[in-house]
Each structure stands twice: as structure tokens, then as C-alpha cells.
Design brief:
This protein has 12 helices and 4 strands, in the order H-E-H-H-H-E-H-H-E-H-H-H-E-H-H-H. By secondary structure, the protein is of the alpha/beta class. The protein starts with 16 loop residues before the first helix and ends in a 5-residue tail after the last helix.
């Protein structure tokens, strides 16, 4: 069964966007997520369509360990990515992100984990005249008309286990696992898995609160349906953002592949045993 409303709500826009940011897209969307929910492969295929922008994590704070993991975009206008693109200041950074993240049809996409969302809003409040703006107004002012795609996972224990494995090894995608040596070998850690499970729950509640306060209903997708019908899910997103769907969608040789394996299942079992049973 499909989740969310059948028709998209009107995108959020603010007056004056074109004047402030000449690169403002005709349509912008944010993929709102918590780590290990399937958004990597979703965004990779959306980029391949050529009509849905190039969604990635443009708006990421300088989180601990980001540089060691090769996250060149961490740090906004002070990031390695910004330096490579000759960015000077915050507004220039936003314009550069809009330019790099847009496709010729005027669609812009970005992926935003909850742990980065508050930092993004804080940055946008630094822009002239935006200090007292509401979150949805901040986004509309800088990005133009905005739609929201929310990606979640029904099985949050498996999500936490996947996150714990990635955090320990430093390998957050299948192509990294094939090309890089893990920073350490994974070892089951009940407290780590339990803490990340709690972080997922808290972050999802925060996304709930954001959308409720803004009176917005995003397109809701789940890891399980992305895994089962990737092409169909991509077509739903394209319809949601008003982008023309290509006749064929290229799903060959994807950089991001499902990483779930025997170790994941073992850790799920060990966690449940530690909590006192299979229902934990």
C-alpha cells in the first residue's frame, strides 16, 4: 500500500527568492531522513534520471570524523567542497549548491539527515533579514518552492544495527566497502546499537514535529518499498516533484547496494537476546 497523500501539497515558496539567488530552481525538494534508511540508492537513481536534480548532502555541518570519512561537503561554506568550488561566503555557497545540485529542467534535490537539519536552519538564519523567520520560511527563501520526501524504515532495530556496523567500520556504502579498508573490524556492542536505536526514534519524532508544526505532509517512502520496487518508487518521487519520468530508468551497476548480510542478522539476534526476547 502506498503511504502519504495521493496529490502533492503546494510547494513552499517565499517572495524575493529569484532576486536573492539567481540560481534558484523552479522546483526544489529535500529528502528528509535518518541514517541507514535507503536514501543513498534512492538519491543515486534520482540523479541518474537527469530530471530530479543531483540530491546529496550539500548542507552538512562539520561533524566529528567527517573529514576522515571523506565527507568533503561537511562544513557548509568552509567545507573542502566549497573551497574546491571557489565559494566566498554563505550566500555564494548556497548559490553554488543550487547550481551543482540542479538539472537542466530546473529541479534541485538535496538529502538532509535530521542531525544536519538544525545546523542548516541556523546557517540560513545568518542571511540578511532571516533571523526571525520560521523554519519553512528559511527554506523557501533560499531554495525557492520546496517539496519534501521523507524516507523511513519500518524495522528500526535493523536500521540501528546497520548504522552501528557502518560507524565501526567507516564504510557507509557498498562501493566504499569494495574500495576501502575498514577503520576497524566490527564487534557487537549492545550499548552502541541501543543508543543508535534510540537516536533513530528521537530523530523520527523530531521530523514528525517539524512537519506537524509546518502543517505539511511529505511524500512518505520506506526502505522496504525502495528495496522491493526501486523503479516504481523513483517514479513516485518524479510524479511528486512534477518532473517528467523518462521512458526507462537505469538501475544497472549501482554504487549503492543493499549491505544487509549474516552479520546484521547475528547482531539483531544478539541484541534481542540482550533485551530479553525476540519481541524486543
Amino acid at each position: 500500500m502506498r503511504s502519504g497523500p495521493k496529490r502533492p501539497a503546494a510547494p513552499v515558496a517565499q517572495k524575493g527568492v529569484e532576486a536573492d539567488h539567481p540560481m534558484a530552481p523552479r522546483t526544489a525538494y529535500l529528502v528528509c531522513m535518518v541514517q541507514r534508511c535507503g536514501s543513498n540508492v534512492l538519491c543515486e537513481v534520482l540523479s541518474r534520471t537527469g530530471v530530479a536534480g543531483r540530491p546529496t548532502e550539500y548542507f552538512t555541518p562539520d561533524l566529528p570524523g567527517a573529514a576522515a570519512l571523506g565527507h568533503t561537503m561537511a562544513g557548509f561554506e568552509r567545507s573542502a567542497w566549497a573551497r574546491e568550488h571557489g565559494v566566498v561566503g554563505l550566500q555564494d555557497f548556497i548559490s553554488c549548491a543550487l547550481r551543482e545540485g540542479s538539472t537542466p529542467n530546473g529541479a534541485f534535490g538535496a538529502r538532509v539527515p535530521w542531525i544536519a537539519f538544525d545546523a542548516l536552519l541556523a546557517k540560513l538564519r545568518q542571511l540578511p533579514g532571516q533571523g526571525d523567520a520560521l523554519p519553512i520560511e528559511l527554506l523557501g527563501h533560499s531554495l525557492g518552492p520546496v517539496r519534501f520526501v521523507r524516507v523511513q524504515r519500518h524495522d528500526r532495530l535493523r536500521q540501528a544495527v546497520s548504522w552501528a556496523l557502518a560507524a565501526q567500520t567507516g564504510l557507509y556504502s557498498s562501493h566504499e566497502a569494495a574500495s576501502r579498508t575498514p577503520i576497524r573490524q566490527p564487534a557487537f556492542d549492545f550499548e552502541l546499537v541501543d543508543g543508535l536505536r534510540g537516536e533513530i526514534e528521537r530523530s523520527e519524532r523530531e521530523w514528525d514535529a517539524f512537519f506537524e508544526a509546518a502543517a505539511l505532509e511529505p511524500l512518505r517512502l520506506f526502505y522496504e518499498e525502495i528495496d522491493e520496487d526501486l523503479e516504481g518508487t523513483i517514479r513516485r518521487v518524479l510524479d511528486w516533484i512534477g518532473a517528467p519520468a523518462p521512458a526507462g530508468i537505469d538501475l544497472s551497476n549501482l554504487r549503492h547496494q543493499r549491505q544487509t548480510g549474516g552479520l546484521n542478522a547475528e547482531w539483531v539476534h544478539r541484541y534481542r537476546e540482550g533485551r530479553g526476547g525476540p519481541a524486543a
